[in-house]
Design goal:
Blueprint: E1 2-9, E2 21-25, E3 29-31, H1 32-47, H2 51-61, E4 64-65, E5 72-73, H3 84-97, E6 100-104, E7 107-109, E8 115-117, E9 124-128
Parallel strand pairs: 1-9
Antiparallel strand pairs: 1-2, 3-8, 4-5, 6-7, 6-9
């Protein structure tokens, strides 16, 4: 069993980032898809005590842009226990769209089905990309 620390950051935001979590893996090799699944499950487990905060933080990290308007819209859901399966699927879609990137094994990974080798003591970073004004 290998425990990997996963950190998530949204540039320019502080105080309400997703918590760093330890993800237990059977081996030091996994796919990006599985890494995201395990991280989201652990993030939800950490945040479950405060459903409104959990919803706000998950929405910010895995936020989606509307393709037709390029406007960013927060989901209109009432706070409640998040559906883990739906949150994992949303995170997979966000990664595939380039909403956030992952750095693992000392490099940026690019594909959900890419296999990565994780090193003990080296954290994995989920970095939310934020568009620059005028850019």
């Amino acid at each position: 069993m290998v425990d990997i620390e996963v950190r998530s950051r949204v540039p320019g935001m502080s105080g309400d980032d997703l918590p760093a979590v330890l993800v237990g893996l059977a081996d030091d090799r996994t796919t990006v898809r599985e890494l995201i699944r395990r991280a989201v499950e652990e993030q939800i487990r950490e945040l479950r005590a405060d459903a409104a905060r959990c919803r706000r933080i998950l929405d910010r990290q895995y936020l989606s842009a509307q393709a037709t308007t390029s406007a960013i819209r927060m989901p209109q859901q009432a706070p409640g226990d998040p559906d883990v399966t739906e949150e994992v699927a949303r995170a997979h879609r966000a990664f595939a769209r380039g909403t956030f990137v992952i750095f693992a094994g000392g490099r940026q990974v690019a594909d959900l089905d890419e296999e990565v080798t994780l090193r003990l003591g080296e954290p994995v970073l989920f970095l939310r990309l934020v568009a620059l004004v005028g850019g």
